[in-house]
Amino acid sequence: DPMEAVRTFAAEIEENQIKLESTIGGGEFAEVFKGFYDGSAVAVKRLKQGSSLKAMDDFISEASIMGQFKHANVIQLKGVVTTTRPMMIVTEFMEGGSLDSFLKEQKGKLTTLQLIGMIRGVASGMAYLSAINFIHRDLAARNILVGENMICKVSDFGLSRELEEDDPDSEYQTQGGKIPIRWTAPEAIRYRKFSSASDVWSFGIVVWETMSFGERPYWDWSNFQVMDRVEGGYRLPVPVKCPKIVHSVMMDCWDQDRTQRPRFEEILKRLDNLIRTPEMLHDELVCYTSAVSADF
Ligand SMILES: NC(=O)c1cccc(Nc2nccc(Nc3c(Cl)ccc4c3OCO4)n2)c1
Hints:
Distance between the termini: 67 Å
Radius of gyration: 20 Å
Bound molecules: ligand 7X8
Helix content: 25-40%
Number of strands: 10
Strand order of the largest sheet: 1-2-3-5-4
Strand content: 15-25%
Structural class: alpha+beta
């Protein structure tokens, strides 16, 4: 019973203790506001009146899931309003908004090291979630939030994907459920085999989005073209000014064989090494031996 779970994992907040200030977003089922609670800035997701029972259950489930997490790179739940209507989810406030829009606004203004620092935060949040066996299924720059000092946090644990019917990123699958095709691993698209390894694939796409300052993965290709060409071995190219060594991390995340993809723990170590040795980010300083061994 979702209500039972939310009482276990989330503090109940009195609605009159929350002050709403401004609207910052919204979807089909809920609106998101900036507000204040307990002396600090918060984000408040408010379920729209007249929502279906399923929408209510999904709303409550998102809070229960979030309430079980505690990590610097995962959005922190402060509490919920469930005993009065409308229901609300209250979290820490992330001033930079979603990563995809943040990157578009900051296009060309961030250094490679800053971009890698953001990606490192996402990898750290995902290493934590995969360690507690939580599979995200919708990891994308739009579902990462940016806070002070450009800290990045994994968010959006909604079971019901807020992908609109006509959302170009949603693709109907036979058994209900919508899948964001251009972020999803081939085995998860083909036979719904979601795992931390399919989250690693999605993470590779997030790295590409970040190094491309919010460029749309596979540009204006149709979902079918994406599936067909990726199955055929096509992979996104190295973004402009992106060090080859960062593109090699992406390529490892996009291994057709999910057992060959690096775990988030390994990805985190590789990113930390790059941050510690920035000279590795200058292609001209790094020698790349060709894949084919020299015949001598
Ligand atoms: N500065 C801005 O314009 C801005 C735009 C969008 C989001 C945020 N910031 C922001 N900060 C924290 C959370 C969210 N959105 C969100 C999510 Cl994703 C899931 C569940 C939940 C939420 O709020 C309460 O419950 N947003 C800030």
